[in-house]
Amino acid sequence: MSDEAPGIGDIAALAIDCADPPALARWWARLLGGTVQDDPGGHATLHTPGGLAIDFLRVPEPKTVKNRLHLDLRSTVDLAVATDQALALGAVRADDVYDGGQWQVLRDPEGNEFCLLRTRA
């Protein structure tokens, strides 16, 4: 195996398993902006202003452990203001994951962790 191997593709979307794809996609749209496209099969896709597509896929089982993959969101406003806005939308603090003050870990309404990062200097 070579570290010089060519790539095999590009990232088309990030997928998030959830119980209610249309509702969770709309929640994330309120947080990030963008438009939601509902799929006839019950799934939904958020097309974010930055170009990332986030697919929300219905699964029967609930989330039970910390996510192995999560979104890091760069704040466009002060971190405390961004945190308050996310909390007002229904996010909850995930201080059990990290409570160090450099960034804020939150959970969406279905328990998926994400991080709010400070604005770039």
Structure, explained:
This protein is an alpha/beta fold. The chain has helices spanning 21-32, 79-89; strands spanning 14-18, 35-38, 44-47, 53-58, 71-74, 92-93, 103-107, 113-117. Strand 3 and strand 4 form a beta hairpin. The protein is globular and about 35 Å long.
Secondary-structure topology with pairs:
Elements: E1 14-18, H1 21-32, E2 35-38, E3 44-47, E4 53-58, E5 71-74, H2 79-89, E6 92-93, E7 103-107, E8 113-117
Parallel strand pairs: 1-4, 5-8
Antiparallel strand pairs: 2-3, 3-4, 6-7, 7-8
Features:
8 strands, 121 residues, alpha/beta, 29% strand, 4-stranded mixed sheet
Entry summary:
With 121 residues, the chain is an alpha/beta fold. It has two helices and eight strands.
Global structural class = alpha/beta
Taking the sheet with the most strands, its summary is: 4 strands, mixed
Termini distance?
Answer: 40 Å
Secondary-structure element string: EHEEEEHEEE
**What kind of oligomer do you see?**
single chain
* Rounded average pLDDT: 94
Please report the total strand number as a whole number.
Answer: 8
Q: Shape, please?
A: globular
Q: Going across the major beta sheet, what is the strand order?
A: 1-4-3-2
Report the C-alpha radius of gyration, rounded.
16 Å
Helix content: 10-25%
Number of discrete helical segments: 2
Beta fraction: 25-35%
Weakly predicted, low-confidence segments: none
